[in-house]
Amino acid sequence: MNKPAISVVGLGFVGLSLALVNAKKGFFTVAIDNNEEKIKKNSSGKTPFYEPLLDSYLHYSIKSKMIHFTRDLHEILNTDITFVTVGTPPSKQGEIDLSQLKSVTNDLAKILKEKKKRHLVVIKSTVVPETTKIISKRFKNTNVGILVNPEFLREGSGIHDLLKPHLIVIGEENKKDGDALERYYLDFYEKPPEILRTSTTTAELIKYANNAFLATKISFINSIANICQNIPDSDVNTIAHAIGKDTRIGPLFLKAGPGFGGSCLPKDILGLIKFSEKFKDANILFKAVRQVNQNQPYRILEIMKEMGVLQRGKRVSILGLAFKNDTDDIRESVSIKLVNVLLKKGLDIRVHDPMALGNFRVLFGDKITYCTKIEECLEKSECCILLTDWKQYKKLRRINFIKKMKDVNIIDARRVLDQSKFQELNFRAIGLGSKIYR
User: In 3D, which of 35, 18, 36 has the Cα closest to residue 27?
Assistant: First the structure.
């Protein structure tokens, strides 16, 4: 039996990763985006953003001729399944912006109107509940099946998460279309994960519930860290380890830090708050989770004030700009919020990141100093703030700071340093969630 041909509309992090993995798995894939520069880059073997394994998958897909990049949406007619992965960013008011999705699905309905063979349109974009019900009306009197198939990809692990997902969710309007999408996944995986079949609305809400719960765990442990910050001889890492051993809780996403960022959690928690406003007090918890996260970066400023370094003219080194390691994504990153505040207070800011310097330069221009080496970033600094848990930062030792910094004040916002190795020295180092140690 021949494998179905796949088309992917929208080549951001999710879409490009999905297209390349399908091509590597032997599914001929048409990758579509309306951005001409992006299509040219991808066609020439260049990825527009950093993601582990993406380059090698792109080169393989092009060499094997299993992928075709195009701006022409009509080429979906040469495929059997279309995955829609366009962006659904927040509007200025915080509600989810469905304009890209509405535009694309409207065009798809027109193009597929005359197609006789059954065609599946699979919504992978994150949308609020009941969106797909509305969209499906556009495909009335066509031979098109509409499904919802939410993704659970982590930036920095996108390829891995596509190859080894914890669950496949299929939201369907009718069983035959759900069967067809399930057959695709049974062909895709040698050992298929659990496949959950449900309604389109439930599938949409599963995605929001998933991200809201992850955000809740992060804000919870940060709230505990903020208590530890004020109590001697208490440590949030130990507390997180202990409660993580409880199988009802689990250890993941219990790492205290400066707050969550990126393109998903902040957007989705706000989208869920806005969507559920019409249900009276259904969003109280979600509002609290968001408020904790918004306040968390300012804990760093409180520590800087305590250290005496939150003063005009003081030099501050920031290690880590991306919202997490293994990505160059700075969307909703704590680094942006922090640098904006420090600039207003007149501090001299030097920054380092293995991947995100270019993206950061677009935002801040010549207002700050960009360093390609950690040693350069630390030069004559009076405070160092670790914001991203890159591997190279975990390898830093006391001597790295002592040799270069003017005054050795360290704020380890990601708690990547071994606190025991930073004791008994005449400088101050602090991890969020513990008192200052020497």
Answer: 18
Q: Two tokens at 2? A: 């021949």
Distance CA 317, CA 334 (A): 14
- In this structure, what token pair is assigned to residue 302? 């409180």
Q: Where is 29: in which H helix or E strand?
A: strand 29-32
Q: Could you tell me which residues come within 8 angstroms of residue 127 by beta carbon, excluding any fewer than 6 positions away?
A: 88, 96, 98, 101, 148, 204
CATH tag for 6-198 (out of 3.50.50.60, 3.40.30.10, 3.40.50.1450, 3.40.50.720): 3.40.50.720
Reading the block at residue 164, the tokens are 């080894």
Considering only CA atoms, which of 287, 286, 302 is closest in space to residue 226? 302
- pLDDT tens string 53-76: 999 999 999 999 999 999 999 999
Q: CATH class for domain 297-438?
A: alpha beta
User: Distance between CA 223 and CA 205 in Å, rounded?
Assistant: 26
Three-class DSSP category at 166? coil
The string of pLDDT tens digits covering residues 107-144 is 999 999 989 999 999 999 999 999 999 999 999 989 99
pTM for this structure?
0.91
| Domain spans in the chain, listed from the N-terminal domain onward | 6-198, 297-438
325: nearest Cα among 349, 347, 297, 353? 353
* Residues forming the active site: 264
Whether 297-438 and 6-198 are alike in CATH topology: the answer is yes
Run of H or E residues at 99? helix 99-111
